[in-house]
Amino acid sequence: MAPCIVCKTETTKYRCPKCMERYCSVTCCRAHKEGNIHPAFRDMAGDTDEVPESLLHELSASSEIRSMLGNPHLRAMLENLVNTDKPDLAMAAAMREPIFTELADTCLRIVDKENPNLEPEATLGGR
């Protein structure tokens, strides 16, 4: 686990939602927010891929997703994605796992109402 971005302590519990840097306390969170406006992240993210809150509620209410999240292997994979220092590598590994791609496909079907024929597997080279 990466050290706190502010005080460099090895025990970090939290991540900045804007840049994903780790910090250890409310004090360090405030210091990070005051000293860092996250320009690189803002440029990368853009404003076009936001999911409306109503669709996020549909995700949380989905019995299919709740059922999938009952799988301990999937939960461990998701926990690893949240806690890893190398999210790009962890995501690449997760996308090779059928249970993870099934969850991703289900989430996309719920949030991408404009594209009901969405087939993410086809975009991954026809696995």
From TrEMBL:
Key word Membrane present: no
Signal peptide residue numbers: none
Pfam families: zf-HIT (PF04438), ZNHIT3_C (PF21373)
Residues forming coiled coils: none
InterPro entries (UniProt xref): Znf_C2H2_type, Znf_HIT, ZNHIT3_C
Residues in HIT-type domain copies: 4-38
CDD domains (alphabetical): zf-HIT_ZNHIT2-3
Keyword vocabulary terms for this entry: Metal-binding, Zinc, Zinc-finger
Gene Ontology MF term list: zinc ion binding
Name of the protein in its database record: Zinc finger hit domain-containing protein 3
